[in-house]
Amino acid sequence: MLLINAGELDTQNAPVGCEPEDWMRFDKEITDAGVVVASESLADLVTATRVEVANDGKRTVTDGPFAETREVLGGFYVIDVPDLDVALDWAAKCPGSRGGGSVIVRPVADF
User: Fold this and answer.
1) How many C-beta neighbours within 10 Å does residue 26 have?
2) How far is CA 36 from its chain centroid?
3) CA separation (Å) from 34 to 7, 22, 27?
4) Alpha-carbon torsion 61, 52, 107, 7, what sign?
5) Tens of pLDDT along 52-87?
6) pLDDT tens, position by position, 16-49
7) Under 8 Å CB-to-CB from 75, ≥6 apart: which residues?
8) I want to staple 16 with a disulfide (CB 3.0 to 4.6 A). Which of 8, 48, 97, 103 is the partner?
C-alpha cells in the first residue's frame, strides 16, 4: 500500500510541486501498468473525525483538523507488485513524494 502524505501547501491549500496534471499522468501510468488494486483520494482534512476509546470504555470524538498532526494522509494506492523494490519505484514516481510530501510503503498483512 502506498500511503500519500501531503507536503507543503500553497495559498489555495494545494500541494506544492505537484499539479493536477502530474496526478493524472501518474494515475494513468500506474493504472496502465496493471498494478493498481484500489486507489482513492481522501476528502479535505476538515471532514476528518477522530475516535479514541479509553481503557474505561469512554469514547472521545474530535472533529478535524488536528493541529498536533504533522502528516496529512491525502490518499492511497493499493498495488500488487512482486517485491518492495518495485513498490519503492512506484512511490518515488508518485507526485505526493515531492514538495515536502512523502509516500509510505507498507505491505498489506496476510493472515
Assistant:
1) 17
2) 14
3) 27, 19, 11
4) positive
5) 999 999 999 988 776 666 678 889 999 999 999 999
6) 567 889 999 999 999 999 999 999 988 887 888 8
7) 4, 39, 40, 41, 42, 96
8) 8
What's the distance, CA 90 to chain centroid? 13
Whether residue 15 contacts residue 96, with contact meaning beta carbons closer than 8 Å, is answered with yes
Angle at 60 between CA 57 and CA 65, to 5 degrees: 150
C-beta separation of 99 from 17 below 8 A: yes
